[in-house]
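Protein folds are increasingly written down as discrete tokens. With that in mind, we are printing a sequence and the tokens encoding its fold.
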Amino acid sequence: MKELTYSNLKQLKPNSYILIDTRDSGSILYGMIPGAIHIAEQELYANLARYAKEFDPKKDVILYCQRGVRSIDLAEAFEEQGCECCSLSGGYLAYLRDTVSSDKQSSEIQPKAENSIRQKYHKQLFTPFAKACKQYQLIREGDHIAVCISGGKDSMLMAKLFQEIRTHRQVNFDLTFLVMDPGYHADNRSLIEHNARSLGIPITIFESSIFDAVDTVEKNPCYLCARMRRGYLYSKAKELGCNKIALGHHYDDVIETILMGMLHGGQVQTMMPKLHSTNFEGMELIRPMYLIREADICK
């Protein structure tokens, strides 16, 4: 089994290899290496023999995880099945470091993103965003909205849509683009900062210790993490003088929440387009991407 550096990967012809992201479904929400397909580590281990036969023998099989450690063991397991594999040295973080260090095209990203919102994807993205804001009265005169950014595609798009709707000047309101660092690896945080600069989003970052707090929790750590995140965001937004926080949940998130409630809880519950906080007086949560489909975001 051999390791391949990211610089060497970039020199390969795109159709000469199969690049597999072996991380979990939560991790890939923050991004994947371009051209990769996602097959989680557990899925691969459970079906080693099948995948070893299905992979095109004329193409190199390259596996990567977050840091390039777990993918080494997985590649060795495939080799035992007679399938030659490479592990990407440094994993996804190697790609992040390369992306952050390369600013050659950063100046082109912001105008391209803004033009696509105004022209190519105006109907799919901006129109339903503006409709939700008007229909559910999400933006009012004098609002100061904390646009909460996780670094994923949904929240970054939401930030650009807020910038765009403010240029129409139908309502006067202020924006703070708020990023909470719950304990990110330095490379992940650098990528968020890099992407925000490239898109022209002036972010405000604050730290929390959420990851450390939930690291030892065995029962429902994801639920606890989400609740703690919400509390930290409300608290910081209020400290900064905001009266609303905006989250990037879209139409498909709403439908999924309804189905999960029906199947697992035996009840009908959903995400509302806006909610008044019961713990933070005067604060309101809004979801301006309520009418946007995820498929349109991914285009």
Notes: Residues 45 and 74 are 7 Å apart (CA to CA). The first strand starts at residue 2 and ends at 4. Residues 221-239 form the longest helix (19 residues). The chain has a mean pLDDT of 88.
